[in-house]
């Protein structure tokens, strides 16, 4: 079992008293210049709270907001379970309000990261003599803050800028383009101090290449954020990573391994392709949000986890019954149309078999347990082979976004198991680290930036870059030409369940489309509203259009 502390600073046990969902409210802890830190070891330990906060919502509520607002994923209710106040329905229909649970929770989470980073930078900046070690660690914390601001800007648009700890006055919302410039300046200010190593010593901490990857992500989206294209700047940031020679694409054999519970800085695939990842440990706790990776809990069908005797088969040997409410939609799965592509194997689809691939995975229940609508109250025993079907049907209640509470309902939708279920964990938490930036993203962002009009460099073309990736993902023939839609399709296949699809859909002009039950084409939904809790505390915040 991996331990986060092997890769990230140890987390001190102190109380984090986080007040209100507002960037203007300072984050306070027992860490003060008078009592801590006094030496390099304490200095390192003191940084841990910022990384623990970053882990917070990233794999859960933040992912839900990015995924369920797109055609990538859906989480309907089953017999009332998972309705959760309608927040999942609102994500799907693009009908969320400023009181949606995800909208509120992620604003709070990102604000907490920024507040903790500001406080930690303030305290650590006044301790220890100036040194290269200190400057690098402070730059890493600033990069965590910059990434949190990026997510805040990407999701909420115009937000306040709080540059330092202790600014007790309220701050107004700042135009998105100004927030972009602030983040860009912060990243560039960090670059000279960040490590250029890419090994165990920098894993889970932002290094020089993390900074370049974040710049590339900002520049590829710059037209949406600022109204001005920055394609050549995106290419330059990608080239800083490509030319380093320190990264490579995972092989076909290692693509799935890259996301296993054993992934990390020494694991096949991930050690060469991960530029920045957030480590997860099934036994860890956090200071903000859940700080957990619960992928299998949401994605694995109930009958493929721990089940009653004779009712199914614990295919993944996980010690719990998964909830299994989440799946993809047919519109998204349609991009997985190459039978020779290894990325198809991240999905559970159709009839299921035991690990030998021959014996059907049978489920024993009753007729009512199988289909309560067709056989209400019928307790006659019934055995069937588990069959995951592509379509979601709200057969119990459209209003309550409910498929029903029987096997027909629970087995709707194809399931993603990219972050493979962790059989070593005694809880629902997993040890799989979550990549934020991968080398494949750099390759595809560069291809897209050139395709959108940027200058080709290093002998690359959009076609050569896309085929470079496809050469280690499929045994099918290389493409003969490439369009923006081809690049978009490649991104759908490559980054499923990694939290980037909303960002991609908006940039490619597809977010106002129709999928599943969603018909809304309101462009205001490209941004989420600033939550009620935030505007009630800070009267200087201006609400986004349409809310």
UniProtKB/TrEMBL annotation:
Cellular localisation: Cell outer membrane
Signal sequence residues: 1-19
Top-level taxonomic group: Bacteria
Bilayer-crossing regions: none
Pfam families referenced in this protein's UniProt entry, alphabetically: SusD-like_3, SusD_RagB
Gene3D superfamilies: 1.25.40.390
Annotated ranges, domain RagB/SusD: 411-547
Cellular component, GO, one term: cell outer membrane
KW Signal (keyword) present: yes
Domain SusD-like N-terminal: 89-219
Keyword Signal appears in the UniProt entry: yes
Keywords of this entry: Cell outer membrane, Membrane, Signal
Protein family per UniProt: Belongs to the SusD family.
Name of the featured protein: RagB/SusD family nutrient uptake outer membrane protein
UniProt organism field: Chryseosolibacter histidini
Lineage: Bacteria, Pseudomonadati, Bacteroidota, Cytophagia, Cytophagales
